[in-house]
Amino acid sequence: METTANVLVGLVAALHAYFLVLEMFLWERRPGRKLSGFDAAMARATAPLAANQGLYNGFLAAGLIWGLVADDPTGFRVQVFFLGCVLVAGLYGGLTTNRRILTAQAAPGALALAAVLLAR
Question: How far apart are the first and last CA of the chain?
Fold first, then answer.
């Protein structure tokens, strides 16, 4: 179960690294505009906000990677903390912004958190 938990944590970290790239560097290009549904003008106007979100997603990815490489009990605690952050952010975003965030962020975070807790 520990291997499964580590793989899931790694996948959530990779997902948030992808969000960082998408929101910080590709927001005004096709991938970012396809995700947001914004036209070029709206994408340009919201790019600073998206970049800020991307930076936060990068912090989540970094924290999850830290949790994977740190020895226990620190590694376990860091994983639980950052997966909790992923879950809360995903729930909030899904309920206030776009329901797709529930499946793209909250669900993977919840699965990884459950696996980490079960592996303990």
Answer: 9
